[in-house]
Design brief:
The longest helix has about 35 residues, at about 305-340. The protein has helices at about 10-20, 25-35, 40-45, 65-75, 90-100, 125-130, 150-155, 195-210, 215-220, 220-230, 240-255, 255-265, 275-290, 295-300, 305-340, 340-345, 360-375, 400-405, 430-445, 465-475, 530; strands at about 5, 80-85, 110, 135-140, 160-165, 180, 350-355, 375-385, 385-390, 410-415, 420-425, 450-455, 455-460, 485-495, 500, 505-510, 515-520, 535-550, 550-565. A hairpin with a 2-residue loop joins strand 16 (about 505-510) and strand 17. It is built from 21 helices and 19 strands. By secondary structure, the chain is α/β, with parallel strands linked by helices. The chain folds into 4 domains: about 10-45; about 55-315, inorganic pyrophosphatase (n-terminal core) (Alpha-Beta Complex); about 340-450, Roll (Diaminopimelate Epimerase, Chain A, domain 1); about 455-573, OB fold (Dihydrolipoamide Acetyltransferase, E2P) (Beta Barrel). Helix 1 (about 10-20) crosses helix 2 and helix 5 (about 90-100) packs parallel to helix 8 (about 195-210).
Length: about 575
């Protein structure tokens, strides 16, 4: 599929001004300006994040109320329940807050709702469990901001709630004794993009200060916070950058036994980056909730004995293996289904349904289908008497509004701009499919059906020196709003030494102005014919280090290529 290329802009005067104060390569200055770091001080804070850059936790609305209520519970020996969602953000948040409180107070428990029996967020079953076990205070993490009726129900049982959440609040807030959420309109906390675990971290930092505990009493959980930041796809700006930077340092130098066990099972031998947390740690943690029970993810994170931690890690590893098999099988079936139905190939949306598909992976499968067809996608399966499923969007298209327009065919739905979930009667699937296609066709901009690559800046091969790469490496951790820089080089030629490897990848050997670079392009075999034309090309790539036989050299990780304007073939001498 041909992709759209968009080269990002940067104000030339800002780039020149930053170059004058930083005295680093203009490419770096351009990258910094694009990310909003357009002064010497901002750039210094970006490259040298400090824990002292973190905001005062007490600035968060209701923090004093939350700390006072927890202290009162401890003084009265009340039973406390730490409650969290079943994904990575929720389980790391529960592990973080539970361990901190448990280090000073033992009358507490934790609870993770079952994904299929209870659903997302605060559950009645969880509140009933709290009541049955004598709990009088629940601290909810990564959920609760929308649980107005359930928290009112808990209040009727004389159970108080402290809500720690980062999702957008509705106009009506739950009747909790304290709500910690920087996205509240009247919350003056300066940074609004914390994940659920990040909000929990701010709570324990305030508790530690109130109790006169040393900084390490809460900083020692930064490996869990970094894992949540990576998995929850929050912006890598401000506090998230600081927390992720130091959390990654801890992952590499001395992680908790649970993370260490998962790294060993995954065969990690190199330095961990945020992308490794996304692709190595997060899927194994999420798999616990998708395939079985996410409670064991918390048990893994709080376990201090390395052998017991390995046992829990093996459970998650096994769940992830099952998840991968289900994901692969269902994706293949869905792609075959679309391919054999010529009508569906020309649609602007995808809706597929099979009764036997595993509910835990339908969201992942929807994302996989978008990789092939790049259009808003819904994947449905049978769940009891109803059909249930997940939807994923393409960048720029409001999926929630499209599904809302189809509500007459649904029993229930929820979600946001890019992802959603829904339930409906099986007999209404065809009507929903038709309506969804009608709505998407009428509202989606045609260009959104073509995948886009965002390119930071144009470079020459002669720019790509180890000194430049060393500065780029200091821009880690990469993630949303601080992605790994993507470059374009124009008028590049194949040397004739490029080749297909393992039938689907391309090993590149390219030249531009007598400077030669090697590179790799994964799953790009269909582009190999362009190289055979022996014409100048424009290539899009990221820069990476390759270590081979003890030697380190720079190589290109090619994302896309196309023919450029025809010029005479340069001499390769």
């Amino acid at each position: 599929m041909q992709k759209r290329w968009k080269i990002l802009a940067a104000d030339p005067s800002s780039v020149n001004g930053l170059y004058g104060s930083l005295k680093v390569h203009p490419i770096i200055c351009r990258l910094l300006v694009q990310r909003g770091y357009d002064t010497f001080e901002k750039a210094k804070q970006f490259f040298r994040p400090q824990l002292s850059d973190l905001h005062d936790s007490w600035m968060m609305k209701d923090m004093a109320k939350a700390v006072a209520r927890i202290e009162r519970a401890m003084q009265s020996n009340e039973r406390i329940l730490v409650f969290g969602d079943y994904d990575v953000d929720g389980t790391t948040a529960v592990a973080t807050v539970y361990q901190f409180i448990n280090s000073v107070y033992q009358n507490l428990d934790f609870y993770i709702p079952h994904r299929y029996r209870e659903g997302y967020g605060v559950s009645k079953q969880g509140i009933d469990y709290a009541y049955a076990t004598g709990v009088t205070l629940i601290i909810s993490l990564d959920c609760g901001i929308k649980s107005v009726d359930l928290i009112r129900y808990a209040k009727s049982l004389d159970i108080d709630f402290i809500v720690c959440d980062h999702h957008m609040p509705d106009p009506e807030l739950p009747p909790a004794v304290a709500i910690l959420n920087p996205k509240q309109q009247d919350c003056l906390y300066p940074y609004k993009e914390l994940c659920g675990c990040g909000v929990g971290f701010k709570l324990i930092s305030a508790l530690a200060q109130k109790m006169g505990l040393p900084e390490n009493a809460y900083l020692k959980y930064l490996d869990l916070v970094a894992t949540a930041i990576a998995a929850d796809i929050v912006p890598l700006t401000g506090e998230n950058r600081v927390l992720a930077y130091y959390g990654l340092k801890m992952v590499n130098e001395g992680p908790c036994e649970g993370i260490k066990a998962l790294m060993e099972l995954a065969g990690v031998q190199k330095e961990m980056f945020l992308t490794n947390l996304v692709f190595v740690i997060a899927p194994r943690v999420n798999a616990a909730g998708r395939m079985d029970d996410a409670r064991k993810a918390v048990l893994l994170f709080i376990e201090k004995d390395c052998e017991k931690a390995k046992t829990f890690a093996e459970m998650l590893h096994h769940d992830n293996k099952d998840r991968r098999e289900a994901d692969s099988t269902i994706t293949e079936e869905a792609l075959a289904f679309i391919k054999t139905d010529l009508l569906r190939q020309d649609r602007k949306s995808t809706v597929v349904y099979q009764e036997h598909w595993h509910k835990g992976v339908v969201g992942i499968v929807a994302s996989r289908l978008i990789e092939t067809y790049h259009r808003p996608t819904v994947v449905l399966t049978r769940s009891g008497e109803v059909a249930a499923g997940s939807a994923r969007s393409v960048p720029g298209f409001n999926l929630y509004e499209a599904i809302h327009a189809c509500r007459e065919h649904l029993l229930g739905y929820g979600g946001h701009f890019a992802a959603a979930g829904m339930t409906l009667l099986p007999e209404n699937i065809e009507a929903f499919r038709s309506k969804f296609e009608e709505v998407v066709s009428a509202t989606i901009e045609p260009e959104l059906l073509i995948p886009q690559i965002l390119i930071d800046t144009e470079v020459l091969f002669s720019d790509l020196k180890p000194s430049l790469y060393r500065i780029i490496a200091q821009m880690e951790p990469f993630g949303p709003e601080n992605m790994r820089p993507v470059f374009i080089a124009r008028q590049v030629y194949d040397t004739g030494w490029s080749k297909v490897v393992k039938e689907q990848h391309i090993k590149f050997v390219l030249v531009q102005n007598n400077v030669t670079f090697t590179g790799i392009g994964f799953n790009m075999v269909e582009k190999f014919a362009i190289l055979l034309e022996k014409k100048p090309m424009d290539i899009v790539f990221t820069l990476e280090e390759n270590i081979w036989n003890g030697e380190t050299h720079l190589q290109l990780k090619v994302c896309d290529l196309r023919l450029s304007e025809t010029l005479p073939m340069p001499s390769l001498n």
